[in-house]
Amino acid sequence: MSSKLQEIKAKALAEKKKQLSSAKGNVESCFFHQLKEASLHPRIIKQARKSGVLNLSNRGIAEMPDIVWNITSLTAEETKELSVSIDSSEDDKWWDYVDLTKLVLASNTLRSVSPNISNYKRLNVLDLHDNCLSDLPSSLGELTCLTKLNISRNQFELLPDSIFSLKSLKSLQAQYNKLRCLNDDIGNLSFLEELDLSFNNLKKLPHCIGFLSRVTMLNLSNNELAQLPVEMGDLMALKHLDLSKNKLKSLPALVEMLHHLEQLYIQHNNITELPLLTNCKSLKEIHAGFNSIEVLSTEFVETISNIKLLDLRDNKISEIPDNICSLQSLERLDVSNNALSR
User: Global pTM?
Assistant: First the structure.
C-alpha cells in the first residue's frame, strides 16, 4: 500500500511540474485568460456594487472582462444564490448596488474601450491614463454626468469626437499623447475648468479655444506652438497659463485681458518682447527665462504692480529700468545670465 501511495504522489508531482513549466513562459497571457474566463473575483464585483467605485489599475490587462462594462449584471451562480439569500435575514445584502460613479482602468495595456461603457450613465470620473489607446467609442458621449476624464499617456493623435459631447466635463487631462491638432469642437466643452494638453505635437490652436470661458488652468507646455490665436484673450477665468517649451516668438496683445491670471509660464521659447499686461491685476508670477528678450521696458514694469516673482534669467536684457524699485510686492527677481553691464 505504501509503495502504491508513493507512486500516485510521484505522478501527481510530475503533472504539477509540467503545468508550472507550461505556464512559466507566458504568465501575463495566463493572467489575462483567467480574467476573461473567470471574470473578476466576486469580492471585487461586490465591493464595486456597494461603493460605486471600480479600480482595476496597474494589472497589465489587455482587454477587460465583459463584467467590467456591466458590473450590476448577476452571474448564473449569483442568480441561483439570490433565490436563497433574498428571503434570509442577511446583514450583507450583496445583491443591492449603487450606480458606478468612478471607473479607474489606468496603467494597463488596453487598446480599446467597450461601447458598453455607456451603461454607466452616472459615471463622474473615468481614468484611462497610461494605456495604449488611440480612439474611444462614440457611446462615450452618452456619459452626460462625466466631469473628469484622464486619457494621458496614450497614443491619441486626435481627440475622439465623443469627448466633445461630454457637456458636463470639467477636467480633461490629455498630456503625453501624440496630438497634432485640436478639433474646432473643443469649444463645445463650455463647462471645462482644467485642460492639460502638455507634451504633445500641437503646432497651432483653433480659434474656438476662446469659447472655453470657464477654464482656470490651461497647460500647453512642451508642444510645437509658434503662435497663439488672439482669442486666447477670451479665456476670462484663466488663472494658470503654461506655454513653456514651445516655439513662440511673441504673445498676443490681448493676453492683457486675462484679468484673473495669476501665474504665467513662458520660459524656453523664442520670445523677444513682453506685451503690456495692463489689466492683469491678479498676476503674481511671471516665468520668462530662456527666451530672447532684449528690453525690459519701463511701461511693462508699470503694468505688473502686484508681481511677487519675476524670472527673466537667460535672456538678452541689457538694462533694468529704475522703476523696478516701485514693485512693492516683489519677493524674487532673477535676471541672471543676461547682458547687464551695471
Answer: 0.84
Question: How far, in Å, CA of 333 to CA of 331, rounded?
Answer: 7
Is residue 150 within 8 Å of 126, Cβ to Cβ?
Answer: yes
Average pLDDT over residues 59-64: 94
Q: What is the pLDDT of residue 134?
A: 98
In this structure, the dihedral spanned by the alpha carbons of residues 201, 205, 210 and 213, taken in order and rounded to 10 degrees, is 0
Name the phi and psi angles at 171, rounded to 5. -135, 125
Cell of 212: 472655453
Q: Do the beta carbons of residue 301 and residue 279 sit within 8 Å?
A: no
Check residue 102 and give left, alpha or beta (phi > 0: left; psi -120 to 50: alpha). Answer: beta
Which grid cell is 64? 477587460
Would you place residue 3 in the very low, low, confident or very high pLDDT band (cuts 50, 70, 90)? low
- Residue 168 identity (one-letter amino acid): S
pLDDT for the residue 81: 59
E strands present in the chain:
53-55, 102-104, 125-127, 148-150, 171-173, 194-196, 217-219, 240-242, 263-265, 285-287, 309-311, 332-334
Strand partners, 242: 219, 265
Helices 2-24 + 27-38 axis angle, to 10:
100
Average pLDDT, the chain: 87
Count of C-beta atoms within a 10 Å radius of residue 96 = 9
CA angle 31, 33, 34 (to 5 degrees): 65
- The amino acid at 274: L
Please report, for residues 13, 18, 84, 175, 182, the alpha-carbon distance to residue 23 in angstroms, rounded to integers and kept in the order given: 16, 9, 38, 37, 45
**CA gyration radius for the chain?**
28
Query: How far is residue 247's CA from residue 223's CA, in Å, rounded to a whole number?
Result: 8
Nearest to 143 by CA among 102, 104, 107: 102
Give the Cα separation of 322 and 319 in Å (integer).
Answer: 9
Residue with cell 503674481: 284
